[in-house]
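A common beginner's mistake is to predict each chain separately and then try to dock the pieces by hand. The better habit, illustrated here, is to supply every component at once so that their relative placement is modeled jointly.
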Amino acid sequence: MKPIEANNPQPGVGAVGLIPTDNSAQSILQFSGAWVHGAAIAKPVEALIAEFDSAQKPRRILLQTRNLTGWDSRLPTYLIKIIDWCRREGVEVDASGLPEGVQGLLKLARAVPERTDARRSAHGVSLLADVGKSVLAGVQDAKGLVYFIGEAMLAGWALLRGKARFRPVDMLLCIQDAGPSALPIVTLISLLVGLILAFVGAVQLSMFGAQIYIADLVGLGTVREMGALMTAVIMSGRTGAAYAAQLGTMNVNSEIDALKTMGISPMEFLVLPRLSALILMMPLLALYANLMGMLGGALVTVSAFDVSWLQYYNETRRAVQLHDFTVGLGKSVLFAVLIAIAGCMRGMQCGRSASAVGDAATSAMVNSIVYIVVADSVVTLICSRFGI
Amino acid sequence: MADPHITVTDLTMAYGDFVIQHDLNFTICRGDVFIIMGGSGCGKSTLLKHLIGLQSPAKGEVFYAAQNFWEADADERVLIMRSIGVLYQSGALFSSLTLSENIALPLTEFTRLSRGEIQDIVSYKLALVGLAGFEEYYPSEISGGMQKRAGLARAMALDPEILFFDEPSAGLDPVSARLLDDLIINLRDTLGTTIVVVTHELASIFAIGNNSVFLDSETKTMLATGSPKKLLAESTDPKIIQFLTRGKGRAV
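With all components supplied together, the output reads:
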């Protein structure tokens, strides 16, 4: 096999050296060889400058080349460092010995002086400033949330008065997206959650021979709690994040600006259909999730223990009352509002870059999960306090 | 002709504490083709945002005819905004709607025209910008230049009194840019539309502009206002001369 070097010759070596002159006030810095990407440079620029620093400073440096076989950006970047050093130390530089192209590039790089305030300082932010900044950002965030909720309520009021401007077909699309399209995943997850609940309960209850009460556990657990909660978690990932990404992209593309300057409120045109679609669909999904959860529980109980379908059905009917459904469905409406608000708000506040859209989707998802769990605990506390 | 359409007084624009431009004073008359010019990053687009109601001024006023835009209540402001059309830099078409739905949107929301009439207007507006037959295309299916022209068709949908253009010729080939310039002049001549253009395309500035404001990023204020040709002939400010001659300076 032929060595690779044959086709792809090793890039050369770039050499740099000081040439002694008779005149002690002037040094000649000579460059030779290949000054290209991939070439080995004999002496790093820092080493050269350190050498200059340690020796007696010449009054004048003449830069020249000899037998230079090739050069690219590597040579000018090296030279700029040296020239900068010379300027700082008050040493005169004569670049006339360099190829014309290099001279031109050096001149070009110096043509526009660096803006004094343009460079961002990399360090110098204290911990205290960081804390202050995040507190201020938090306050800003809270203000944004209150503002957004206010706007959403005004839009809702406009909808009730029949004055909201949006395309009904958009609303139908949102409903389809937030409702029927979510059925498969809701089916799967709630069936499995019902199964898990039944197994967890079975371990304890079978110790007393009380397997029939698995129906109570699964029934109450899904209807009051897990049905709404799991649907909300699914929807915040499926729909809340999608809302944030859709609205965020529209923001990046100035589509939201375009709506505003048309005199159409984006709150009414974009947020309202999404919000109402989710509010309409979530209770239905939660109801369906309840059914699936109980089915999952029944599957486990009937197949693994000595309980018949009819017994399970009767026990569930006895245990789960209408007001349990009310609690669960009420929660699902609340979650729908929270998910839609988190998603739409993050989308509308989205910055104008591709990464901002990603951030919006992420924070929509994180926010809605936090809102959901906090709201769920509060509602559960209230319910147990009042014995509902 | 000297009937003021938009008057800007003592306008200061800022993001938080960071001032973009301060103390802007100029008047855009009815039927003007008004150019907002200046180097990159001097706040031209920000000024446009202040004029079309996307960003509120830190100080100062914007009057539409005699009405104070930023002091007006929300309903009045929406009314003013309905009388303007904006062509955004990227076109800003609604990506989930077809071209015909895009253009039909303001018509269905703000007029009582029948569906058939709206379709006729949509086809006519698309034909005006040279996109006849593209009604059922989605914005992602056509080129950037076509998106821009479709955006113009949408901006013109309601026959606005004022049309704003944000860098209309950016990303267009020279011939299309020239056609757009011709279209702008045509709109002004036939409909009497007031035109406000943000641009730094010298060819268009001289071809279409009859009034302008020159923003400077260093002093953060306007250096001059008036007809671009007159500015080139009479201004003594080296920055303006440099800008209007592509950096060549005044030929003496």
